Amino acid sequence: MSLVWRGSPELEFRRPGPADLCRAVLRGVPLALLLSGGLALNWMVRLVERPLCHPRTPVSPGITVVVCRVALWLIGLRLEVAGTARSGPGAVLANHSSWLDILVLNSRQRVVFVSKAEVASWPGIGALARATGTLFIRREARAEVAEQARAITERLGRGQTLVLFPEGTSTDNQQVLPFKPALLAGLLAAGAPEGVAVQPVTLRYDAPPSQDPRFYAWFGDMDFAPHALAVLSARRRGQVRLTYHPPIPVAGRDRKSIAAEAERAVRSAF
User: What mean pLDDT value characterizes the chain?
Assistant: First the structure.
């Protein structure tokens, strides 16, 4: 199964001028300091909270929420929210368009991402993912499906809200791909706690004026550095609309019907 979507021409960014580079530095340096400082603080707090805090009430996720809210402000991305985020054990099922999705979803609630294993080795993003407790899985390894389901069930037992991207890859944010139900197995396993539900969530980015509508999307074989430079050097601000749809209880349901209903909900906000 391919994990890279190439259904849209990749973005081409113009060569940045002196003013663009200046804006990128003025935003990028504080952003790097914020993320690195937040990362260090998160690691230190996690060392202390393990023996002192109950596993269901850690302190460190709150640090992540604050850091990501400030990061969006520094980047210059306005956030508009509709609906209410659900709390408690369960999962967020969201469409996936960009590395910015991590900041956006983390800025509104305490969540734990389920991500492909390669992300753990990515510079910057990988460190942030590891620090926030991301569950890494190998999606191509069919033999590990049962183990992956057990890992998800164990996280639910801690009361965590997991973030799943059931499209299986990132897109140009102009469409929603069919949701794959495979990762939902852990939500339906016998060891999962009672009351588990999934909440469909739509992320829709509006590009800055005069920019390509796909400006914030990061997909296909696009390099991270040119995309990040374009985002940080943008003269005008864009916006992301985050829509929380009504939760879907999983009791008595099967993976395919849950995935199909969540997909319909996510599409409804496009």
Answer: 87
* pLDDT band at residue 229 under the 50/70/90 scheme: very high
Phi, psi angle pair for 247, to nearest 5°: -65, 155
CA distance 158 to 148: 16
- How far is it, in rounded angstroms, from Cα 227 to Cα 12? 9
3-state class of 74 per DSSP? helix
114 in any annotated domain: yes
Q: Which pLDDT score, from 0 to 100, does residue 50 have?
A: 63
Residue-by-residue DSSP string for 192-207: SPTT-EEEEEEEEEEP
- Report residue 223: phi and psi, to 5°: -75, 145
pTM across the whole model? 0.89
The per-type count for the chain, helices as H runs and strands as E runs, is 8, 8
- Nearest Cα residue to 236 out of 209, 214, 206, 205: 209
Per the CB < 8 A criterion, the answer to whether 73 and 109 are in contact is no
Q: Write out the residue range of the structural domain in which residue 226 sits.
A: 18-268
- Residue 115 within any structural domain of the chain: yes
* 142 inside domain: yes
Domain total for the chain? 1
- Cα-based torsion angle of the residue sequence 260, 97, 73, 215 in order, rounded to the nearest 10 degrees: -140
12 within a domain of the structure (yes/no): no
